[in-house]
Amino acid sequence: MKFYFAPFHGISMRIFRGIFFSHFGGFDAVVAPFVAAVPHSQLKPSYFSDIYPLSDTGPLIPQIMGNNARDIADTAAYLYNLGFERVNLNLGCPMPKITRKKRACGLMPFADEIEQIVSRVCETSPVKFSLKMRLGMYSAEECINVLERVNNYPVDEVIVHARLGVQQYEGTVDRQAFQHCCQMCRLPLCYNGDIFTQEDFQSVTLQFPHLHAVMLGRGMLQNPFLLEEIKGNSIPAEEKNRRFVNFHQDLTNTYLQYYPCQAMVVCRLKELWKYFYRSARLSEPQLQQLLRQQGDEFLTATCQLAEKSFI
Ligand SMILES: Cc1cc2nc3c(=O)[nH]c(=O)nc-3n(C[C@H](O)[C@H](O)[C@H](O)COP(=O)(O)O)c2cc1C
Prior knowledge:
With 311 residues, the chain is of the alpha/beta class. The protein folds into 2 domains: 2-230, Alpha-Beta Barrel (TIM Barrel), CATH 3.20.20; 237-307, no CATH class. 45% of the residues lie in helices and 16% in strands. It has helices at 14-23, 69-82, 96-99, 111-124, 141-150, 175-184, 198-207, 218-222, 226-230, 237-258, 262-276, 284-292, 295-307, and strands at residues 2-5, 29-36, 60-65, 86-91, 128-136, 157-164, 189-192, 213-216. An 8-stranded parallel beta barrel has the order 1-2-3-4-5-6-7-8, surrounded by 4 helices. The longest helix has 22 residues, at 237-258. It starts with a strand and ends with a helix. The protein binds flavin mononucleotide.
C-alpha cells in the first residue's frame, strides 16, 4: 500500500511542503497543486517556480490542468524533461470558475476528450501519466465512462476522490460508487476522500482490499500525525504537542522570512488554521474569532494555541 499526500492549491505550496515534510515524513509521493497546461511557446522553467528546481522533500508529482490535448501533452513532456518522471492531470477541482471552462472536474462528462488527452500524452512522451478525478461532475456514471475509455492506455494510476463535483466538499463520500470504480478499473487505483482517522483508513482498506494507494488530504492538515498513526505508531500526547509546536514555529518563521509582508504570512496561516484549530480543540466560534485577528495579534494567538495542541 502506497501513501500519497493530496495537493492543496494555495496551501501545500513549495515553502509549506519544505517545512511540513521535514517534520512529518513517510509519504511515497506528494502531488503538487495544479498549474495550467500552456502552449509549447510559453513553457519555461520559471513557469514551474513552485516545483522547479526539484526539491528534496521526496518524490513530487507535478499536477497540470487543462482541456487542450496538445498543450497538456507538451506540458507533460516538458516536465518530464525537467526531471519529473510522473505527471498528474487534475480532473477533480470543482470550483465553478474552473469547471465552467470545461477544465478539471468540468471535463469529467466528456470521456472522449479525456481519452484524446490520455492518448496524446501516452503517444508523445515516456512520462508516467496519472489522473486525479472525482466520481463525476454530476453523476458517478461519468467516471465509469472515463475508466472504460482509459483502461486500455498505459496510464500510471487513477486517483479517485469519491465525491461528485456538484458536492464541492459537502456531504459524504460515495463508497458504493467507488466500489463500482474498483470493479471497472484495470489500472492501479488510489482512493481519496474523508480519511480523517486511523479507523477511517482501516474501514476503507477493509472495504477495498486491492487498492494500489491511498491519498490523504485534509486529515493530514487536521492531524499531521495521521500517517504515522495509520502506520501503527502510537505517539504520546506530549510528544505530539512538542513536535507540532516546533513545526508551527518553523513554518511561521520561514513564512516571515520568505513573504514580503506580514499580511501575506497571516493570510497563509489563516488558511492552515482552518484545519489546525481542531488540534488545539477550538470550537467553530473560537476559530471565527481567531480568523478575525490580524498582524502580531494573530501571530501571537496562533503560537499560544500551538502550545495547547494535542493536550
Ligand atoms: C483548499 C483546497 C485546495 C485544493 N487544491 C487541489 C489541487 O490543486 N489539485 C487537486 O487535485 N485537488 C485539490 N484539492 C482536493 C484535495 O487534493 C483532495 O482531493 C480533497 O480534499 C479530498 O481529500 P480529503 O478528504 O482527504 O481532504 C484541494 C482541496 C482543498 C480543500
